[in-house]
Amino acid sequence: MSVTTETRSLKFWQGINQALVEEMDRDEKTFLIGEDVARLKTRRDRYEDKLLARELEREITRLAKRRKQCIDRLLAKLGKHDDLKARFDLLASVPAIGPLLGLTLVIRMPELGRMTRGEAAALAGVAPFNNDSGQHAGQRHIQGGRGRVRRMLWLAAFSGAQRWNPILVALYKRLTDAGKHHKLAVTACARKLIEIANAILSRRTPWQQAPI
Fold first, then answer.
1. Virtual CA dihedral for 162, 164, 168, 171, nearest 10 degrees?
2. Which residue, 65, 80, 95, sits at the end of a domain?
3. pTM for this structure?
4. How do residues 76-99 score in pLDDT, each as one tens digit?
């Protein structure tokens, strides 16, 4: 392939990706509905009034339906492009990476699979940075990166570490058993999850339950 052809191909895919980013931006609030649904379910379970509980259940159903419609619409557009669909399918093979995170990584992190694990963690905003000064060793923290990716990644890691992904479950347990704070342990799981996603796209092989 000539340099000119490669340049045209790159511009073509950049154009497609930008269109998908704009589509996702338009539905940003809808994609965050999952958090609203979780809060409503918690409220519903605490209500003794059956009428109020039924009203909340109807609202939960309405929001969940709206969210699914938006995700299905984006999946349909993604499915028109074999390369992007293949990347999504690889990511979807990973326990804890659902449709929303898969879409987020394919659309908002097109570089994934072509970088080191450290670069992937930094770009996603889950790489640890020190706060050292002189002889003082400060607390490690995360900063920078792509905020929307980090948010979705953290939420997926939270659920994955509780049940869905055996590697994340083991990592979370090891850290909390060692006395690490819940939030720090989930952040470490988010970092592990983006490293797994990066490795899978790099190798072009689906998930296997083995350390990456």
1. 50
2. 80
3. 0.75
4. 988 888 989 999 999 999 999 999
